[in-house]
Amino acid sequence: MLTIRKSGLQTAVQDLGRTGFQRYGVIASGVMDPFAHRIANLLAGNAETAATLEIALSGPVIEFEADHFIAICGGDLSPSLDGEPLTMWRGHFVQKGSVLSFGEPKRGARSYVAVAGSFDIPAVMDSQSTYLRAGIGGFQGRALKNGDSLQTLPLPAGRLEALKNQNEQAPDWLIPPARYHEQPIVRMMPGRQFNLFDEESRTRIFEETFTVSASSDRMGYRLEGAELALEKQEELISEAVAFGSVQVPADGNPIVLLADRQTTGGYPKIGQVASVDLPLISQLKPGESLKFRNISVHDAQQLYIEQEQQIRQLKIAIQMKREEWT
């Protein structure tokens, strides 16, 4: 069992999302940084799809009521265990009674805590993700509060000891040092309505710097900067949107749709962020900036394939080490 002694700004149970239900108007939700979530799970000995705790900016204080094995990946929110700094992107054995806490955000906005075995929480429409606005999924459909207790699923005999001996760390080549830079270059493919924008807007989207607005949330990041405009006003039929779709409403300020995005949208889409760069946006804090860089669909697909191959290499390495200890 884990007990939340202090909830932090927003800590919620998330997994890779509620897929397969968007055609019914159900929001996918899920983690904002799928890469960090997946790596944390692998390091903790879980399936990549298992639920983690997504921690935003100001982290919680968590007491462990039993021995556990955890991994923390994503933004560096200064995690510590019993007052001692905790190395991120690696597994850690945690003794009963230990307290995990967080300090000042150093880089990035969200951390993911994976616990071996994951959480004993019922799935809602095949997912444990929390959709806060509708109050479904996760822990009672809400962010965690002071005093909440989370049950973890029991581990097979000997698994905890094997994980303790394994103590795997993600290799440096999998974690670029500047992954969560304060002004990242985000690769974006031209969207379905890219050619409906005037020539100046088509140029400025890839040249200007945009700043994350304070009115941003898990649904989408509103960007401030160069205002974009259509060549001529047109009525568009609403169509499906995706994680990373970049819509431009009438005020000309683009919105990057994120984990809690709506299922369809009628604003023109000037671009689609490459999947591998979605974490770069999700880890930005309000007031931080980004620049877009044009990328082809083919190159975006190649980057995705390369990332999946790297994750697979880590997965195989962890599995081989685990077999040595079992």
Automatic annotation (TrEMBL):
Residues 23-310 form the Carboxyltransferase domain. Residues 297-324 form a coiled coil. SMART domains: AHS2. The keyword Iron-sulfur does not apply. InterPro entries: CT_A_B, Cyclophilin-like_dom_sf, PxpC. GO terms for molecular function: ATP binding; hydrolase activity; transferase activity. Keywords: ATP-binding, Coiled coil, Hydrolase, Nucleotide-binding, Transferase. This is Biotin-dependent carboxyltransferase family protein. It comes from Planococcus maritimus.
